[in-house]
Amino acid sequence: MLAATGPGPVPPEPIVRVLGARRIVQHVLVAGTSSPTIAWASVATDVLHFASMVAAARIWPQYRRAELTSAGIAAGAAVVTALVAGPRRAG
Questions:
Q1: Which long-range contacts (CB under 8 A, 24 or more apart) does 53-58 make?
Q2: What is the pLDDT of residue 11?
Q3: Virtual torsion, Cα 77, 61, 63, 45, nearest 10 deg
Q4: All structural domains of the chain with their residue ranges
Q5: Which terminus of the chain is more solvent-facing, meaning fewer CB atoms within 10 Å of its CB: N or C?
């Protein structure tokens, strides 16, 4: 993902590694199950990640390009996962 952001400051490596590991674990769980509950939990996680990256872009503008790239990827993943998960059922 960092290569896609182009030139500029790179966020601290531990943060990048933790967020990358979270994404891998999250999507392995989604791919390994047909549970709509897991899929919708993944959507919620990606929406929260999107919101946190938009906020981070305001707080740490020196990393804005990487943060907004990450936000865009999270938004796309949330939409795709929501489409695959199908309609949510009440209760």
A1: none
A2: 84
A3: -30
A4: 34-85
A5: C
Q: Is the dihedral of CA 19, 25, 28, 32 positive or negative?
A: negative
User: 70: how many CB neighbours lie within 10 A of its CB?
Assistant: 27
Q: Span 51-63, mean pLDDT?
A: 95
Answer whether 25's CB lies under 8 Å from 76's CB. Answer: no
Tokens of 5: 């952001």
d(CA 76, CA 67): 14
Sign, CA dihedral 49-51-53-59, equals: negative
- The model carries a pTM of 0.82
């939409």: which residue's tokens? 79
Q: How big is the chain, counted in residues? A: 91
Beta carbons of 71 and 60 less than 8 angstroms apart: no
